[in-house]
Amino acid sequence: MTESAATEAGSVVNLKAGEIQAMHLSRYDGSALDFTHLTPEAFDPALTVAADRLPLGGVGPLVKATLDRYCVQCVVEAPGYRAMSWRLQVHLACTRHHLRLASDASNAGDAVSRDVVETQAAVLSRLAPSAENQGFFQHLHAQLVSEIGPWRSSLDRRVQETPEAVLEAFGLAVARVMSPGYPDYQGFAHWPSLSAARHLRPPDSLAYDRSLHVFPHLLPMHHFTHGLADLLHRPQIRQARAMAAVGAAMCATGHPLGVAVRLLPERRRGTTSAMLLNHLVQLEREGRAEQFWRSCAEAATQLIRESVDYRHREKVCGDENAYVIARSAEPSAYPRTIRTWLVDQWACTYTSSNVRPSVRDGSIEYFDRNFGPGMRAALERLLAERAA
Ligand SMILES: [Zn+2]
User: Fold this and answer.
1) Which branch of life, at top level (predicted)?
2) How many angstroms separate the alpha carbon of residue 156 from the centre of ligand 1?
3) In whole angstroms, what is the distance from residue 162 CA to residue 151 CA?
């Protein structure tokens, strides 16, 4: 509700406006609920809208607009007490009394297992609004849909009919959300790749939040051959290096695949994202997903340390001057390979049509060993002059 409405309501019951606001579901706005499309005025008590006609349907998975479930024992101990989270469909059990929440006296008070209590506690610990917690609930929603269908409209009924089955499905959905980086376990092999990409996150994050320009479109060879080349040997090397670059960006930022892939030019995103998902599922089945993430995190750490602006290099790369300078630095280098080298080893982009998949037979690495250092030094000087 608006600040002035909260102040007014507070003056009646002798509470501060902030205390009144904290009693409202908007406290979960940005975690389990989303009030983005509702203005505070919709909840002004002066409007005298009947409680069951409040526009709450769209904000998220509530038990009902006006009702909630409750813990029988909590109410016995403190008559009149209502936990605000009891309004949420994702609150199924009391973590203090280990009882299933009841919607009326007829189904009151089944005991639940320790596993259910732990699952429930994990969900309730995510209620503070933050981008991370919002992602958690969005993913939980998607997992519940995949596990039990359109649950928002039917979970309340189902939990009364078959509580064990619902609690088990709920437990599995939460466990899957809490296993980032393992798409096979998370069930993504059977999801449409767009929604899987939206929810596939790396297991750990370096919490890097600065420019993505330190991540090239293709992972540079010296990072790629260090472990990732073995893991990603099935696809073409160029695709594999793009997948590795996206994996490194995910590990650095903690972003899901669907966001990290924006690193790449638009036309490359769909394919790369679908391929990365497929290959990661394969790696996981072979017990090598952990190795993949570890190698990506190592690559990310080094890229951040090197702090090269690849977008800047990409621009310089298209400049004829760069070619001339690289060529005069190493006059004996085969001139046409210089163009490939510029894009592939130095700017690490997709932008040139000159790039041939010559990395396959090792000729570019050979070329790089012989001429790379001299050309790199000359180009770094060019960049320094430009920056000055
Ligand atoms: Zn209780």
Assistant:
1) Bacteria
2) 18
3) 13
| Token code pair at residue 102 | 């009841």
The string of DSSP codes covering 35-77 is -TTS-GGGG-GGG---GGGSS-GGGS-BS-SS---B-HHHHHH
Give distance in angstroms: CA of 98 to centre of ligand 1. 7
Q: Assess contact for 90 and 62: CB atoms under 8 A.
A: no
* Residue 281: both structure tokens together: 């599922």
Instruction: Note the pTM of the prediction, 2 decimals.
Output: 0.84
Contact 38, 14 (CB under 8 A): no
Q: What are 91-148's pLDDT values in tens digits? A: 999 999 999 998 876 666 789 999 999 999 999 999 999 999 999 999 999 999 998 8
Could you tell me the distance, in angstroms and rounded to a whole number, from the CA of residue 283 to the centre of ligand 1?
Answer: 43
| Distance between Cα 77 and ligand 1 center (Å) | 9
Give the C-alpha distances (Å, rounded to integers) separating 373 from 221, 324, 345, 378: 14, 16, 11, 9
Q: For residue 208, which amino acid is it?
A: Y
Output the six-digit token pair for 191: 């999801």
Q: Are 223 and 300 spatial neighbours (Cβ–Cβ below 8 Å)? A: no
Distance (angstroms) between ligand 1 centre and the Cα of 136 equals 25
Distance 250 CA to ligand 1 centre (A): 40
